[in-house]
Amino acid sequence: MTPWLKTLAACLVAGCAGTAALWAATESGRALTSEGARRVRALEAPALVPDVVLTDRHDQPLHLRRGDGSITLVEFIYTTCPLICQSAGAAFLRLQGLLQEAGLTTDVRLLSVTFDLERDGPAELEVYEKTHQADGSQWRIVRPSPRDLESLLQAFGVVVLPDPVLGFEHNAAIHVVSDGRLIGIFDLEDIDGVMKQIAAVRQGTT
Amino acid sequence: MTQVPLCMAAALFTLCVILRVPLERHMVTHVLVLLPALAAAGWFTGRAIANRWPTLRSSDWNAAGATGLLTVLLTGAFWMLPRSLDWSLGEPLGEAAKFVSLPLFLGIPLALSWRRAPVLVRGFLNASAISMALTLAWVYANAPVRLCTSYLTGQQEQLGEGFLWVSVMLGVLWTAPAFGLRLPAWGARQLPSLLPRHLP
Which residue from A54, A108, B15, B93 has the highest number of Cβ atoms inside 10 Å of its Cβ? Predict the structure, then answer.
């Protein structure tokens, strides 16, 4: 073999190995970030969320998983958040309105889950509920027990970083949970996407 | 002649291992110090290998340095993905992959291949590196979302600024010879005279 043929063969091997690594690292060319990969995975291989018990501001327990075919929309928040959780609240307010218009008050529920267990007690949850006009039945502001917080965030792929100015930074999104599985993750602005997936799930079950 | 580069490589790699945690705490030092240092450890290893086994420098399997430079580019592309950074921070396997692949698949092949590549190819790669650094500067400084979930938005913007300085520095470094300036020699000659004379 001439040097050029040998080099061509070696390049092919290196090229294939490298491309395979890049292909795997980008979820087949669809995600450059871990946030993108998290969303692709939710759509393709929906993972079970942990069966944790959350409590609302009246200390009433509710299960994250429900086996009745209903859909739960989940947002992770902290009530002292100045920016992104406020738009998270605005997104849920719009969804609450749209769902009520569509007559989906019992089949779809909305949960704003705080991860700031040190500061967010029942009183803070109530303030958040009032300021964002959550109706308190379809849309509830809840907190997990400290024991469950880590596994809950991990299951959803939410990373919370302490921030000296804002308190926290986290990857905020609207998570769609159906039959105990995380089946979709959407941008806070993508209300249409959420409504479409809700429609698709309901078409599949009825 | 083998010992000097090998010692440099060992020292750099050991430093990377020791300073891993503090360097990874900030996005800028992670990307602009730790990753290049790991690659540099590989580069020194590559120099040592070339000195010890000179035939490797003219290996038939790496004509014009093509195989090596392809490996360098692919490895570079992999570690340029924001997701790879998160992977290395979140999982021990990712961290191990970073510490192994950057020296092995970026530093070593670069040292064994760079001088074999035609001047035109080297110039093209240099120019691409500058424009890539500029692109990354723009992306990190202006991204509307966090690209790495492990780092704060503020650090991401600082990294964008950092890449801007990298592109400027590379631009100066690589265009200086065209104006008759040989930077290392020039720097070495000029530096003493730039220092205040009256210092003891």
Answer: A108
Which amino acid makes up residue B108? Answer: I
Is A104 in contact with A191 (CB distance < 8 Å)?
Answer: no
B42-95 pLDDT, tens per residue?
999 999 999 999 998 889 999 999 999 999 999 999 999 999 999 999 999 999
- pLDDT tens digit string along B99-127? 999 999 999 999 999 999 999 999 999 99
Strand order in the sheet with A71-77: A47-48, A181-186, A174-178, A71-77, A108-114, A139-144, A53-55, A61-63
Q: Determine how many CB atoms are found less than 10 A away from the CB of residue A88.
A: 20
Read off the pTM: 0.87
For residues B84 and B94, is the Cβ–Cβ distance under 8 A?
A: yes
ipTM of the complex: 0.86
Report residue B195 as tokens: 């220092």
Give how far Cα B4 sits from Cα of A170, B44, B45, B50, Å: 46, 9, 10, 13
